[in-house]
UniProtKB/TrEMBL annotation:
It comes from Pseudozyma hubeiensis (strain SY62) (Yeast). GO terms for molecular function: 3-deoxy-7-phosphoheptulonate synthase activity. One of its GO terms (biological process) is amino acid biosynthetic process. Pfam families: DAHP_synth_2. This is Phospho-2-dehydro-3-deoxyheptonate aldolase.
């Protein structure tokens, strides 16, 4: 490695998070092996670009203003094995279909973010689990304590006691390359016209079983095709519009839980801030830029190029922890999961850290910031405010708790100076996990009772969220939804929905190694439900 790149690296390091407690830290057998992988990743190109991140920031500002809707969807835990063209296309098509249905109902652009191309790390409540193994020769059963599965980038799911699920740092390098291959396929599909809104019928809707859903979709497509024909007739073909056009917007952003801070840091780069004189100067810092010493905080930003946005999990959001500190240090928009244990005052403290007041040159300030003030003693042409859309608050309380726990959280937000900058997302999945009443039919002694979610609970949480916001919080709005789903049509992990799956059907197509996901048809059910809500 050249001396020059080593010195660039020194300035990438944000010393403060490293001195704080890192929840869910992984114990690698060899720190040297881990460090050597990190050194390799530091020299690899970013997976996304600072310009793309800035583009998402602009779109999220519109979501915060209520002018766009956010749809964040994907697997609970992505596996390296999911990096196959059919599966990637299926997820992409489902996201496009859902957004089309939402655009039709809400009459707003939809910002699409996938839990994809890097959603490999999982936080666990227990570090180990007990598995039973049957000796194939003697038939004797024995119990083994092995590490919990922490996601494909940490250890292998295979519960062979011999492997013990020992963490292997090489998996982080594999994660990088699987993310890169997945993202490359997404980019090439979008560039090849997968998202052509003139041909939505090709998006494989024919697999939907429910004839009512089929008919609904036909009518959405008909009205859209009419609108497109009309626009072409009057010479305003939306495909000639700028990318901000509702119909021609084919951006698709990637996200994952920012759990493995070493990996996130290794993909974080210093980027020169644009200046009024040179507004397009955002680019990675070259070692020669550093010849005259360290860059100052005023001239550079840190961009985490592992994804356009990452989120802070409900288990790693400690106020004084390493994760909150790392998240506060990057320019990317960030999410924070909010479960029932979050106190309203704690939420505001986290928001203060993640989205502090920043100075905005008056000339450059626009509708993108809010809550401006000019503290005494500061230069009058600088205003201070919050960056709009910087934080997505992803609320996951569960259908049973949303009515009691949501109002105090919303009251605190509405009374704070975050109210205009925040994006409120409803995650109706993580508070609604339950165990299937049916014991596993499999003869595998390691078979666990299935984790599932009721479609009815998922819908009920979304509707309660909407009801509470619209009746009691006129200054706030639902910015979007965060869903665990799969484009796979045969998956049976959640019960209910227009396919009328029963808990006893789950074993038939249960594929998740982590949380249960909505299948293709159930996902469209949710999209139609939201679409109807906004239309009426
Ligand atoms: C998840 O999104 O898969 C997850 C683990 O969420 P939470 O942090 O909300 O439990
Ligand atoms: Mn999950």
């Amino acid at each position: 490695m050249s001396g020059a790149s080593a010195s660039t690296r020194e300035y990438h390091a944000n010393p403060t998070w490293r001195s704080k407690k890192e929840a869910q830290q992984v114990d690698y057998p060899s720190q040297e092996a881990f460090q050597s992988v990190m050194n390799r990743i530091e020299r690899l190109p970013g997976l996304v670009s600072p310009n793309e991140i800035d583009r998402l920031r602009t779109q999220l500002a519109s979501v915060a203003e209520g002018n766009a809707f956010l749809l964040q969807t994907g697997d609970c835990a992505e596996l390296f094995d999911y990096c196959d063209p059919e599966q990637i296309q299926a997820k992409l098509k489902l996201s496009l279909l859902m957004s089309l249905i939402l655009i039709w109902g809400a009459r707003k652009p939809v910002v699409r973010i996938g839990r994809i191309a890097g959603q490999y790390a999982k936080p666990r409540s227990k570090p180990t689990e007990i598995v039973t193994k049957i000796d194939p020769v003697t038939g004797q059963a024995s119990q083994h304590e092995i590490m919990s599965f922490r996601g494909d980038n940490i250890n292998a799911f295979s519960a062979e006691p011999a492997s013990g699920r020992i963490p292997d740092p090489e998996r982080l390098l594999q994660a990088y390359f699987h993310s890169a291959a997945t993202l490359n396929h997404i980019r090439s599909e979008l560039a090849s016209g997968l998202a052509d809104l003139h041909a939505p019928r090709q998006w494989s809707f024919q697999h939907v079983q429910s004839s009512a859903l089929q008919a609904e979709f036909e009518s959405v497509v008909d009205s859209l095709t009419d609108a497109l024909d009309f626009m072409r007739t009057i010479g305003a073909d939306p495909s000639t519009f700028s990318s901000s056009s509702v119909l021609n917007s084919v951006d698709y952003f990637i996200s994952h839980e920012g759990l493995s801070l070493g990996y996130e840091e290794a993909l974080t780069r210093l980027v020169r801030k644009p200046t009024p004189a040179n507004p397009h100067s955002a680019r990675n810092v070259h070692p020669s830029d550093l010849a005259n010493g360290a860059p100052t905080g005023d001239s550079f930003d840190r961009y985490d190029l592992s994804a356009h946005t990452i989120w802070l999990g409900d288990r790693t959001r400690q106020l004084d922890g390493a994760h909150v500190d790392f998240f506060s240090s990057i320019r990317n928009p960030v999410g924070v999961k909010v479960g029932p244990s979050m106190k309203p005052s704690e939420l505001i403290q986290i928001l203060d850290i993640l989205n502090p007041d920043v100075p905005i040159p008056a000339a450059a300030s626009s509708a993108r910031t809010s809550g401006w003030s000019t503290p005494s003693g500061t230069t009058p042409n600088i205003v201070y405010g919050k960056e709009k859309g910087r934080v997505m608050v992803i609320i996951r309380l569960g259908a049973a708790k949303v009515t009691s726990h949501l109002p105090p959280l919303l009251e605190a937000i509405a009374a704070s100076n975050h109210k205009d900058s925040i994006i409120l997302l409803c995650d109706p999945m993580h508070g609604n996990t339950q165990t299937s009443p049916y014991p596993p039919a499999s003869s595998d002694p390691n078979a666990q009772p299935l984790k599932t979610r009721s479609f009815g609970d998922i819908i009920s949480e979304i509707l309660s969220f909407l009801e509470i916001i619209s009746s009691d919080f006129p200054t706030l709005h639902l910015g979007g939804v965060h869903l665990e789903l799969t484009g796979d049509k045969d998956v049976t992990e959640c019960f209910g929905g227009s396919m009328r799956l029963e808990p006893k059907d789950l074993e038939r197509g249960y594929k998740s190694h982590c949380d249960p996901r909505l299948n293709f048809e159930q996902s469209l059910d949710v999209a139609f439900l939201l679409s109807h809500y906004f239309r009426n």
